[in-house]
Design goal:
alpha/beta, 12 helices, 8 strands, about 15% strand, disordered N terminus
């Protein structure tokens, strides 16, 4: 994201309206089946809630056998655990147990007034992990979720985490400060807040249509379904959580978190990431981590886990099983 890419005028973004088709489906369920008790696997796959430390209801999905190694996915802003569908199905098919939660105020989790900061985000993850009693866990975080995952591993993950993956992640810190002269000016994030407050729905269409997936690049293969799914996830969440979340992902300093993490960590980033510029994120994070492997993808966008899922999934699998 460069200072000129996101402004209240939405320069460099795709504009226009998006017509969403509404569909209804009738589902017939036999009375005999309705009387059958749900199996453990079926019950878990439907999604459940766990109360966080402050009582906020956090939604999570938990698929696969309990005996399998768990992988916990941390989604980006302003999305939900659904953004990891391509990875969850892939790793479920490989025999892993896969878990994804919706951050507070996002997706299906409670739309609360407070706690929209990285400390609460990490504590909410801890509540899910402790509720499920997970161990030997791999945590994979994208964008804002990368910051959340790093803070969770640093502050709550001792004895439970085996590996960490940061994908297009926001650490060490995004905003420009005296200690981080290569960061983005605060005006960039003020611009995000301005367009979100003015017309969140249109902003989410523009963001997904343009820089997030690199659909604004010449020759890019634009996917309307991907854009609509991004919009759907965003609009399911709460406007206040998304507005306050901008401060959380842009101004939180993860330097000390990264320095304290000693588990093997894979840092993946596209060098055409217009949202989280690589020079002030992945390059620096890899230097701060004690046991990091950095992999840079030429020409790939911020949303590469969706646009290039086959490539990313293979590299994730190689790291997890290696």
């Amino acid at each position: 994201m460069n200072p000129g890419s996101i402004t209240p005028t939405r320069r460099d973004m795709m504009t226009g309206t998006l017509g969403l088709a509404a569909a209804t489906a009738a589902v017939a369920v036999s009375s005999a089946r309705a009387e059958e008790p749900a199996t453990e696997a079926g019950h878990r796959s439907a999604g459940e809630y766990v109360p966080s430390k402050d009582g906020t209801a956090i939604f999570y999905k938990d698929w696969g056998p309990k005996s399998a190694q768990p992988i916990v996915f941390h989604h980006g802003w302003p999305l939900s655990g659904d953004d990891w569908d391509a990875q969850m199905l892939f790793f479920l098919g490989k025999g892993f147990r896969v878990i994804a939660h919706d951050r507070r105020g996002h997706g299906r989790s409670a739309q609360v007034s407070d706690g929209h900061d990285m400390d609460h985000y990490a504590a909410d993850v801890a509540a899910v992990v402790e509720h499920l009693d997970l161990s030997n866990t791999v945590h994979i975080g994208h964008s804002t979720g990368g910051g959340e995952a790093a803070r969770y591993v640093a502050r709550h993950g001792k004895g439970r985490v085996s590996k960490l993956v940061l994908v297009g992640a926001v650490p060490p810190i995004m905003v420009k400060t005296p200690a981080n002269p290569g960061g983005l000016p605060i005006e960039v994030f003020d611009g995000l807040r301005a367009v979100l407050a003015a017309d969140r729905s249109q902003f989410y269409i523009d963001f997904a249509s343009g820089p997030f997936y690199g659909f604004n690049r010449e020759g890019a293969k634009r996917s309307e379904a991907t854009i609509q799914n991004w919009w759907r996830q965003g609009m399911t969440g709460a406007a206040n959580a998304h507005y306050l979340g901008i401060k959380a992902f842009s101004e939180t300093d993860f330097t000390d978190d990264l320095k304290s993490i000693d588990v093997p960590t894979l840092v993946l980033h596209g060098d055409d990431d217009q949202i989280v510029p690589i020079a002030d994120s992945a390059i620096l994070s890899a230097k701060l981590l004690k046991n990091a492997t950095l992999k840079i993808y030429k020409g790939l966008p911020h949303g590469m886990a969706t646009t290039h899922a086959d490539l990313i999934n293979k590299d994730l699998l190689d790291f997890i099983t290696g």
